Amino acid sequence: MANWPALAALIRRVGRPLVVEALRAWAEVRRGQPDVADPDACASWCEGRLAGLANPTLRRVFNLTGTVLHTNLGRALMAEEAIEAAVTAMRSPATLEYDLEGAGRGERDDHIAPWLCRLTGAEAATAVNNNAGAVLIALSALAAGREVIVSRGELIEIGGAFRIPDIMARAGCRLVEVGTTNRTHLRDYAAAIGPDTAAIMKVHPSNYAVQGFTKSVTAAELVPLAREKGLPVIEDLGSGTLVDLEIWGLPHEPTAREAIDAGIDVVTFSGDKLLGGPQAGLVVGKKSFIERIAKNPLKRALRLDKVRLAALEATLRLYADPEKLVQRVPTIRTLARPATEIHAQAERLLPALVQALGAGWQAGIKPVRGQIGSGALPVDLLPSFALSVKAQGKGGGLDKLAEAFRRLPIPVIGRIQDETLLFDLRTLDDEAAFAAQLTSTLTLLPLEGEGQGGGA
Q1: What DSSP designation does 272 have?
Q2: By C-alpha distance, which of 260, 202, 190, 196 is closest to 226?
Q3: How many DSSP H helices and E strands does the chain contain?
Q4: Model confidence over 318-363: pLDDT tens digits?
Q5: What's the CATH fold of domain 62-71+334-451?
Q6: Residues 210/181, Cβ–Cβ less than 8 Å
Q7: Domain 80-328 bears CATH identifier 3.40.640.10
């Protein structure tokens, strides 16, 4: 069977081993059937079976959900400089751990530590694969086998079950909770300090907000107590940022430099969220503590490869000129994008959408409010505009319509809200490609009566 001419094109595309595997499956499924030896029927069946293997599962999409840093859709888009640096590192041998001047072994951190120190004011810096890893290795290096004090109001859980108590347990620390969910005082920390205390930890509540009758202890208040007792203060900023977002009219998010200036000994934050770089966990602070973290056995398990280091170094270099960040870093550009610009884009695209949908659907422009995402500024929303689609008259079919958009060559992912399919345009950076796809939707979208049906 594998020599049938009908299978030749398929063999050239995916290779003989996969075709043979599909043929065996065909023979098993069609055992005893009259078409088991039909070359055309067999080739068609095998092609369908192997179609999924021939196409990548990690695909480009249009993120029009209204969440800028969408965890499920890859978070930050990297700057062109970072992309070029990553590609160069992939194509060629690189000085990952090689010192050109001394012709000997170098350190991976040497590529990014000087920039992190320059941008945060820290004495030293290191990096691991993500912020969860940064928190884990910091606790393991500085407090394994001993106690770490944390306010009950900061025992966060984010993403895929990242919970501060669980991370502490994996790091070998004993959690000491102080205060209450909504109010923690300096005296609570002071009363909890004992001979087995290794550190005090602050955790930025990046994915929620407690409002009303609340009290928390600032770094400015906590650091003097820690100094008096000879303890380090570790702060997890979560998303974190290297610049004040208020420059672009956005709400304030604590910066790494603010934490260092306040006297925090070790600060951890992400590289792939508000920073706009590759996935990474960045650790900055006092040299003595960073050296202990960098020498921890976990560092090898959590270290960055040459591709992400190259992209991270290129991203950090852009921050040397903050005034140009909005032009050069896609995350900053998207967050700072004026709503008026988004509305103008919606007006340009609406006619093509109306034509593509045809009868049965009502398309328009709707003011919406999106979010930054990935645990950054969870209660602050971004004014934006969306292309909106709803069924005319009674009925729905929106789920089927949304599925049809996801079947496009570049899948379009929006959100359904109040019986309306919304495509928030704040994150649409390739208007031409999106518009070009609308001309092909006539064969993919449910039209006429289907659009007014009962849905899938």
Answers
A1: S
A2: 190
A3: 19, 17
A4: 999 998 999 999 999 999 999 999 999 999 999 999 988 877 889 9
A5: Aspartate Aminotransferase, domain 1 (3.90.1150)
A6: yes
A7: yes
